Amino acid sequence: MEIVSSRKITTFLMFEGNAEDAMTFYISLFDDAEVVSISRYGAAGPGKEGSVQHATFALAGEQFMCIDSPVKHDFTFTPAVSLFVQCQDEAELDRLFAALAEQGAVLMPLGEYGFSPKFGWVNDRFGVSWQLNLPA
Fold first, then answer.
1. Burial class (CB in 10 A: 0-12, 13-18, 19+), 29
2. PhnB-like domain: which residues (predicted)?
3. Cβ(110)–Cβ(118) under 8 Å?
């Protein structure tokens, strides 16, 4: 497997078995989104056959990489690093917040926080942290 990216720095998300579910979910949320490439583990492993060995996907013009790690880890995602989304309008912010919060955890409920007329922060059902902002 060769990892190719035209970007110097790319956000890399490591999952333990649900990388494709997460990627598919994220792509469903944004109009300008696609799977750029995907390779899967074969019968020889080391990961579960058919799971994501490496994938690249794009959301709103930004590329992300993800994998299903064949190794179990004692860590997962943390809100200390989050994906910050500048929403086009209130409807987009509300839609994204509702979808990402479903089966996830709200860290900051939707509201006006002084720095933004409307802002919300959630961990989605996969543990990835998202800050959603409506610019002033």
1. middle
2. 8-132
3. yes
| Tokens found for residue 127 | 């543990």
Residue 81 and residue 63: Cα distance in Å, rounded?
16
What mean pLDDT value characterizes the chain? Answer: 93
CATH 3.40.50.720 correct for 11-68 = no
Distance CA 36, CA 106 (A): 30
- Distances from the Cα of 115 to the Cαs of 65, 88, 90, in angstroms? 30, 17, 16
Give ranges for CATH 3.30.720.100 in the chain.
Answer: 11-68
Q: Which sign does the torsion angle of CA 42, 35, 79, 82 carry? A: positive
Residue 65: both structure tokens together:
């990489």
Q: In the CATH scheme, what is the code of domain 83-134?
A: 3.30.720.110
- pLDDT on residue 127: 97
Closest to 134 measured CA to CA, from 96, 100, 87, 94: 87
Q: Please answer whether residues 118 and 14 qualify as being in contact, where contact means their C-beta atoms are separated by less than 8 angstroms.
A: no
Report the alpha-carbon distance of residue 58 to residue 83 in Å, rounded. Answer: 13
Q: Determine what percent of the chain is predicted with pLDDT higher than 90.
A: 90
| pLDDT at residue number 8 | 81
